Amino acid sequence: MHDFPGYICGTCGARHEDAPLSYRTHAPVYWSDAVAAADGSELTPDLCVINGEHFFVQGTIDIPLLDAEGAFSWGVWVSLSAASFGRTVELWESPDRESEPPYFGWLSTELPIYGRSTLELKTHVHTQPVGRKPLVEVEPTDHPLAVAQRTGMTMAEVRHIAERLRHPETPRADR
Predict the structure, then answer these.
(1) Are 76 and 60 in contact (CB under 8 A)?
(2) Quick one: which of 11, 39, 150, 161 is 20 to 30 A from 143 by CA?
(3) What CA–CA distance (Å, rounded) separates 58 from 132?
(4) CA–CA dist 65, 9 (Å, integer)
(5) In Å, what is the CA distance from 150 to each residue of 25, 45, 113, 138?
(6) Which residues, 6 or more positions from 78, have their beta carbon under 8 angstroms from its beta carbon?
């Protein structure tokens, strides 16, 4: 874990001792109580099937930090084709599964801090060694998430994300 000196929140004015370096979402944006009750739907911490015909895997979008060690990470859901999902499940506990070519997928998590929807961004899902979530590479476009993944971000930007997620309904004077 990183040692952070803490910061004064620009939204609430309180001192926060940390700025988390990762956030995860519980389920794809398409998941709901009604979907959960439907036949053929299942949600685990890593995999999701909706109505037996829509398939998702949870992965990580890493964004390099420019002024600190490591990366900032979004835990996101990506839709996969039935064939790619089947292969993912088939290799779930297989050694050397990371040698699998990346799978195409559509981002299925809304990250509200980017000012533009992140839903349906094109991605490549890179299988990692057993026990690690796949790495998600966003197609290189001008979308702010794709730009951040390519160029990195600062700890000030990490703190800004923490403020926005801690206080989602509070307007900021600088917006």
Answers:
(1) yes
(2) 11
(3) 10
(4) 20
(5) 22, 27, 17, 9
(6) 56, 57, 58, 59, 105, 106, 107, 108, 123, 125, 134, 136
Cα 99 to Cα 90: distance, rounded to the nearest angstrom: 14
**What is the sign of the dihedral through the CA atoms of 88, 99, 128 and 109?**
negative
Residue type, 130: V
- Strand-pair partners of 65: 153
| pLDDT mean across residues, the chain | 89
Task: Identify the CA nearest to 139 among candidates 118, 156, 153.
Answer: 118
Question: Over the stretch 95-138, which tens digit does the pLDDT of each residue have?
Answer: 999 999 999 999 999 998 899 999 999 999 999 999 999 999 99
Q: Where are the alpha helices (DSSP H) in 4-154?
A: 33-37, 82-90, 144-151
β-strand 71-80 against 22-24: which pairing, if any?
A: parallel
Q: Give the residues across from 8 on adjacent strands.
A: 15
How is residue 136 written in tokens? 């998600």
Question: Which tokens is 126 given?
Answer: 């890179």
Total-model pTM: 0.85
Count of C-beta atoms within a 10 Å radius of residue 39 = 6
As given in the structure block, the two tokens for residue 147 are 């730009």
What residues does 37 pair with on adjacent strands?
Answer: none
